[in-house]
């Protein structure tokens, strides 16, 4: 891993699975899913450069994040299942397209191929606001825009988790990751060769269901799951439903492998 990168090996049994969080996340983004994943996989997670407990590096970019993921997969044995959230799904898409032999499967939560043009400007503006005001300047707006109304009304602890995840970010690291995401280009989805699950919330404004369905049409054999009452943080808004979708996805994948011989 890059110097100053925080990584956790969370235990479990079986093949390696690597968890890649999104903008404003940390390894704790995955905490509600880890007990389920540990039943069948050896679980590895890390904080992206500039996020959480990882160092604020120079030159943060999607390409740099992909290189860090490559090192993480190498440390996990050279082949792994990948689970990504939000910006982490873009990192996973690029890695899977570039290294099809190293990726056993993809489960992408809140996936999108790259930000649309309007979102790129908004991300650059957000970076400037964070540098001027700190994380407190954007935290409430992220909660309001990133979670569903149902979550905010009926699961206030989940909304509070998202706010804390944002507030705890190093401001400069977050700003640099905003700029990295603003500059992101889409991966060649046709080069993704592994079984792929795309899961998103019906109230996700960053990665709406139509985006997931469009991505699925470009990835051979991909499946889509829509999570009801869920915004852009499904790991904490709808963890049971997301865990079930991932469990079912891997059960079907294992059955297909068994039938293939």
Q: What is the structure about, briefly put?
A:
With 261 residues, the chain is an alpha/beta fold.
Structural overview:
This protein is α/β, with parallel strands linked by helices and 261 residues long. It has a single domain, classed as Alpha/Beta hydrolase fold, catalytic domain (Rossmann fold), CATH 3.40.50.1820. Strands 1-3-2-4-5-6-7 form a seven-stranded mixed beta sheet, with helices on both faces. β6, α9 and β7 form a beta-alpha-beta unit. The model has no long low-confidence stretch (mean pLDDT 97).
Question: What are the main properties of this structure?
Answer:
seven-stranded mixed β-sheet; Rossmann fold; 261 residues; 11 helices; alpha/beta
Q: Give the SSE string.
A: EEHEHEHEHHHHHEHEHH
Helical fraction equals: 40-55%
Sheet of most strands: 7 strands, mixed
Number of distinct beta strands: 7
Element layout with pairings:
Blueprint: E1 7-12, E2 15-20, H1 34-37, E3 41-46, H2 62-75, E4 80-85, H3 87-98, E5 103-109, H4 117-133, H5 139-146, H6 149-154, H7 156-167, H8 171-182, E6 196-201, H9 209-218, E7 223-227, H10 234-237, H11 239-260
Parallel strand pairs: 2-3, 2-4, 4-5, 5-6, 6-7
Antiparallel strand pairs: 1-3
Helix pairs in contact: 2-3, 4-8, 5-7
